[in-house]
Amino acid sequence: MKVGDLSVSETRDRLMGQGIRLRIGPMVTQLQVRFPNLAQHVHFLYKDTPFIDEPCIVDFEVKLAPPPALRRWFQGGAAIYLDGIMNFGPFDPAIAMPMLEWCLNGCVFNRPNQYLILHSAVIERDGRAAILPAPPGTGKSTLCAAMSLRGWRLLSDEVAMIRPSDKQLLPVPRPVGLKEGSIDVIKRFEPTAAVGHAWPGTRKGTVAHMRPPADHVARADEPATPAWIICPRYEADAATTFEPIPKADALLYVAHDAFNYSLLGTTGFETFADIVDACDCYALVYSDLNEAVGVFNALTPPRATAHPDRS
Amino acid sequence: MDDTPKWQVSPALKLSWRTWGDDTVVYHHGSGDTHKLNPLSAQALRLLQSQPRTAHDLTQQLAAAIGQVADDQLLRYTEKLMDHFDQLGLIEPAA
Question: Which residue, of A20, A38, B20, B94, has the greatest Cβ tally within 10 A?
Fold first, then answer.
């Protein structure tokens, strides 16, 4: 079943009760929300996301709820508990929904160390994936939202989840976070985009989320093969540039932006080195989304390269 | 007896290497850090991994590798390189 198979009031009842076990890629998150007014937003953003009704192993137990009375009075009326321990907050309930999304990001960033986790957007076409590593504020979520609306499948706007055994990228299709001006940029770019409520007053300004296209969520069990590493950077009024970068630089870049690279030791290095070896690596600077889409659509499969010295 | 200090890559701490063209990337298992090396630096670190060496010995080896004379300029470069490797925890004094 998908969340959209429930009515909003059924969703509310479940979130207020035992919770909904969302299946997002290889992870199961048990989500409880003790603010009834947020059920409609969860229902909207996770409409196409499957959930598991029968008892199962849960990776993360996430509860958005009021904190204890004294802290609520002093600091704010909402908090997020991860596996029973306060993880985010207390904070103003008016920004509870974006805080919940950030917490869910944090779960994927910090917990599943059986995978190599890179801070990156990932999109795919014809089985080949583009990894878009970039720090916050460089426009990667906006870019991957646009690409997902122009024929590329969204694996994630925030995380490249890499399985070391076969170097495959696992989809984690969740709502795409859009900030400030990017919200209207995506609405103008594609008026049918499923952009949810805009939440002002967060530490990143006004934030809204775009629901991933339904068929992308439905293909959450289909991994993709890394083919390109493209480091994007939005610059207002900049001409589009798309330049190759040395593979050694690409490796340093992804190693720096990974969450558990050093933790995984040899496995982390060998996995990234193999992926860099297999990919064509570029830096993209853009200001015009349509031009950026054109760059991606013109990509060709990676060139075969001489095997690197790995002694 | 020559008491000039010898330096080495710690035998207990593995290095993993990848080379693409002139660029070498080395992963240091001890620190979890990754370093990009130019060809001469990579050659120097490989030589220090193969056996303990003094700065003078390493300079001689590097000079032979690049087909130049082991002069004072190359010795100073080598000493600076070894100091840098030491700061990064890549090498240590040999016992």
Answer: A20
Nearest-angstrom CA–CA distance, A36 and A15 = 8
pTM value?
Answer: 0.92
Whole-angstrom distance, CA of residue A69 vs CA of residue A79: 12
Specify whether the CB–CB gap between A53 and A1 falls below 8 A.
Answer: yes
pLDDT in tens, A168-203: 999 999 999 999 999 999 999 999 999 999 999 999
Domains annotated on chain B, with CATH:
7-93 (3.90.930)
- Between residues 274 and 293 of chain A, which touch chain B (CB distance below 8 Å)? 277
ipTM surpassing 0.85, yes or no? Answer: yes
Domains (ranges, CATH) in chain A?
A: 3-110 (no CATH), 116-297 (3.40.50)
The pair of three-digit structure tokens given for residue B93, joined into one six-digit string: 């004094």
Chain B residues within an 8 Å CB radius of A262: 32-33
Q: Which residues of A are less than 8 Å from B20 in CB distance? A: 246-248, 277, 308
**Of A247, A248, A265, Cβ closest to residue B32:** A265
Rounded Cα distance, A165 and A189, in Å: 38
